[in-house]
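Re: weekly structure request thread

Next one in the queue (264 aa):
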Amino acid sequence: MELKLEDRVAIVTGGSSGIGLETVRLLLADGAYVVSCARRAEGLEQARAILAAQGAPVDRLVSQPCDVLDEASVERLTETVRTRFGRADILVNNAGQARLSTFASTLDADWEAELNLKFFSVIRPTRAFLPLLRESDAAAIVVVNSLLARQPEPHMVCTSAARAGVQNLVKSLSVELAPAIRVNAILLGTVNSGQWERRFKERAKPGQSMEDWLVELAREKHIPLGRFGKPEEAAAAILFLASPVAGFITGAALEVAGGVSRFA
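Done, posted below.
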């Protein structure tokens, strides 16, 4: 399927690793111009080197450090896009990782940090890029969210609550910004990323391979497809929702979770 992304301008937050990096790679492969940001300049440089080694057209990639929780930093990123391209077509809000805690163990400071991260990593970039997105004839925002928004876990109570709130925000934005800008989300299940590599080193049995360990975990988590997701599979879903071929889809939440959802 032709996604009609050639020469579109896309901004990807958290673009230096995992799902963000795969989203950047697929956007470049489909002919888009990409502005990728992350907090650490070193991570962005490493990501650029990886993409170049894979043969990606990095001449179409702009990388800029940005803390999406800092308004001035986001404004600098917006000015870069405005100066370089004069418009934006796609914004991918790729929020941070989960916080493991129960209600009893979550301190007030933890609640404040988690709610601030999950909400304002969406709010600040969206607010900043709205004027540029309005210049597009096919503007789209995609929020990378979690299945926790619908299916909370007791050991991630703080993150679950924050994710649910973000999904409510996505729905509200999809109505308020229509028809000029489409707003959708993907709801992730368990995706194999750097955090699982770290956990494998900490938790695996002696002599157990990471592949076997992940299969065992998938079985414990009752994932119907029998495995963890891949970052590129989540990125493919993001590209579809961001592309003009999904032009009649807004306010949607696409589950990328291997069938683990308990909802009909």
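The beta strands are 9-13, 33-38, 61-65, 90-94, 139-146, 181-188, 253-256. The helical segments are 18-29, 41-53, 71-84, 108-133, 157-176, 194-203, 210-220, 231-242.
Next request, please.
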